[in-house]
Design brief:
β17 and β18 form a beta hairpin. The longest helix has 4 residues. The chain has a five-stranded antiparallel beta sheet with strand order 1-2-28-27-26, with no helix packed on it. Strands 3, 4, 5, 6 and 7 form a five-stranded antiparallel beta sheet that branches. The chain contains one helix and 28 strands. It has 378 residues and is mainly beta.
């Protein structure tokens, strides 16, 4: 099935977005207009509320279902579950199985989920011959969540071989506990740890706050509201974060591969480039490279990836993203962190909850309603 539409998928319901967002909107069309790449969305599989995915061994793509199952997508389609933790999580609020990742050698598999008490949990499994070894499971990191929304939960290994973990500000609305700017908590942060360097993990010695008695050693960046999806550009190593806004602005943040960490993205004193509820911009605020307001149908940015595949040459080097409430797939042209153009790719992914990048750089779009789509040339 091929999908090529421009309609907005404004779907009310599902708590995952009711608070996974609560902000967003129409894209800022700055930059000289250029022809968009011609693409279609090819429906390659149907899953049960797919929430996240990752490139797996042997050219496979692994898909997480929010209720707790992990399935493998290959040329034969979506297989039977290879992991099932559905008895250990819930789908209340924005909870569930929220992120999966492999280390670079496919020797370990990591899951990020909220347990039945709502605590964010990152667990590790050994992998042998492409198969998870259940008896090797261990918990790497946990974080209590005060509310059922803004869990974040995305995980990915960076080019440096360390595991990055994204946590939202703890939930409710307006960051009532001030977690975004508080270096004494892991909430509202992007973390960086070495899961193989210690028990349960080690702190990379060059983390920006390592050894600071007033900050958590794990923190790589802060001032984030709900960094639902982040990624590293496999071509440059640059970091891009889609941070869900409160009620007015959605933002995409960027850091160069050479960054030493410590970026303050401003929340909750700032929402995008704008003071939030009379807040004062921090002196070290790193503004987003792109933002869009709520004047359109959007409500929750879904961060994606810089396209590095071969199937759509005109898309190469562009950052592909969407919005859960809008569903339109868009692309940013970036030049060293500066947006030089925004394109509407003319396809609608519905309730786009995540993107997945395969080992060869091709991109998949996950629709929480069940669709697993591959971005193909038109």
């Amino acid at each position: 099935m091929k999908v090529r539409t421009r309609s907005s998928a404004v779907i009310g319901a599902l708590c995952l977005v009711a608070s996974l967002a609560l902000t967003t909107a129409s894209a800022d069309e700055s930059g000289a207009p250029r022809p968009a790449a011609e693409v279609v969305l090819n429906n390659v599989a149907t899953a049960q509320s797919p929430s996240a995915g990752t490139a797996g061994p042997g050219g496979t793509v692994w898909i997480a279902e929010r209720a707790g199952k992990v399935r493998v997508l290959d040329d034969a389609g979506l297989g039977a579950p290879v992991l099932d933790i559905s008895g250990e999580t819930t789908t209340d609020g924005e909870r569930g199985l929220l992120g999966i990742a492999f280390d670079k050698d496919f020797a370990h598999f990591y899951i990020s989920f909220t347990n039945r008490q709502g605590t964010s949990t990152v667990d590790e499994f050994a992998v042998r011959d492409g198969e998870i070894q259940p008896d090797t499971r261990r918990t790497v990191l946990t974080q209590t969540q005060p509310y059922a929304n803004h869990n974040g939960g995305d995980i990915a290994f960076g080019p440096d071989g360390y595991l990055y973990i994204a946590f939202g500000d703890g939930g409710s609305a307006g960051d009532p506990h001030g977690n975004g700017q508080n270096l004494g908590t892991l909430l509202g942060k992007l973390l960086r740890i070495d899961p193989s360097g210690g028990e349960p993990y080690a702190i990379p010695p060059d983390n920006p706050f390592a050894g600071d008695p007033n900050a958590k050693d794990e923190i790589w960046a802060y001032g984030l509201r709900n960094p639902w999806r982040f990624s590293f550009d496999t071509g440059t190593g640059d970091l891009l974060i889609g941070d869900v806004g409160q009620s007015a602005w959605e933002e995409i943040d960027w850091a160069p591969a050479a960054s030493k960490g410590g970026e303050n993205y401003g929340w909750s004193r700032m929402e995008g480039n704008h003071p939030f509820r009379g807040g004062t911009e921090p002196a070290n605020h790193v503004p987003p490279v792109h933002e869009y307001d709520r004047s359109g149908p959007g409500c929750s940015v879904t961060g994606g990836y810089v396209y590095r595949g071969e199937a759509v040459p005109d898309l190469k080097g562009q950052y592909v993203f969407s919005d859960f409430c809008d569903g339109t797939v868009r692309a940013l042209r970036l030049d060293n962190g500066e947006v030089t153009g925004v394109s509407d790719l003319g396809v609608d992914g519905g309730r786009v909850v995540s993107f997945v990048q395969s080992g060869d750089g091709e991109l998949y779009v996950l629709n929480l309603a069940g669709g697993v789509f591959r971005i193909d040339p038109a």
